Amino acid sequence: GGQVDVDIDVCVATLLADGTKPLTIATSDKTLFATNFDVTGYTALTGTKYSFDNWKLHSGAFLELPPGSGSTYTIGKYLALAEAGSTLAISNGTLNITAAGTDGTGLFRNADLHVMNGGILKFSAGWISGYSNAREITIDKGGLWRLDGMDATGRAIVLNGGNIELNVPGRAWELRSTSIDVQDDSKITDVTSGGKAQTSIVDYDLAVRVAEGKTLTIDAEIITSGTMKNQSTGKGIRKAGKGEMIFLRELKHSGTNLV
Predict the structure, then answer these.
(1) Which residues pair with 179 in a beta bridge?
(2) What is the pLDDT of residues 91-108, one digit of tens each?
(3) pLDDT band at 17 (very low <50, low <70, confident <90, very high)
(4) Is residue 135 packed enough to be buried (19+ CB in 10 Å), middle (13-18) or exposed (0-12)?
């Protein structure tokens, strides 16, 4: 526990939180190029400028990025979040990812992602979340996940009133055999100018559950080769829950509607 104050441009260190007391890392107005940090407990970052390389979140670790609106964190290299049971949380400011993923597990490996109120998770490169990665991404009310680069995800998506923006003309987002659990009113929106941002569920199954009295509004084009259904077998979009799923744009599917 305690605080580490950093007033240098480059820091190579290993920081081990004991899992019971928070460890706070604070910077001045300089950018901290943080390399090879092992995080084992709850750790919070303060200050406004960080550049990450090879951070490791071990099982049970919770890394929170809490500074105020306008703060920006950039991950331009590999972030080695290797262990299941760890969480990367954005509670304020913007986490901007500029490095592309290299394989199906994505840039964050086995860490869960949590975008809290006031947080923005921004993908400025492609293939970041992991198309064969089943770890969870949760977006709370007041949180935003924005795609400025094409992404294919297998992550389970939980929308607690948070929103998703697609800013990539053409095939912006592929959902590969995953789920969207809507706990509060949420939106998926095409924010491109001059082109359509498409959400593709071709050859995969998407399970959508919307809680009673809540609404998932999809203001983006959907392409699927499967069936719109309420059954659990086969490819396509499977809707469950007593809430509503509303499509405001074109829905292109070559399958049937099955209720």
Answers:
(1) 207
(2) 877 888 877 777 788 877
(3) very low
(4) buried
| Cα separation, 84 vs 142, whole angstroms | 26
Q: Which residues contact 200 (CB under 8 A, 6 or more apart)?
A: 171, 173, 174, 175, 223, 224
Distance separating alpha carbons of residues 29 and 245, to the nearest angstrom: 45
Q: What is the DSSP letter of 255?
A: S
Cβ atoms of 134 and 178 within 8 Å: the answer is yes
Tell me how many degrees the CA angle 111-80-31 measures, rounded to the nearest 5: 105
Query: Are 243 and 214 a contacting pair, CB within 8 Å?
Result: yes
* pLDDT for res 239: 87
Give the pLDDT confidence of 164-223 residue by residue, as tens digits: 999 999 889 999 889 999 999 999 999 998 778 989 887 788 899 999 999 999 999 998
Q: pTM of the predicted model, to two decimals? A: 0.81
- The residue among 48, 135, 142 whose CA lies nearest residue 91 is 142
Burial of 6 per CB tally in 10 Å (0-12, 13-18, 19+): middle
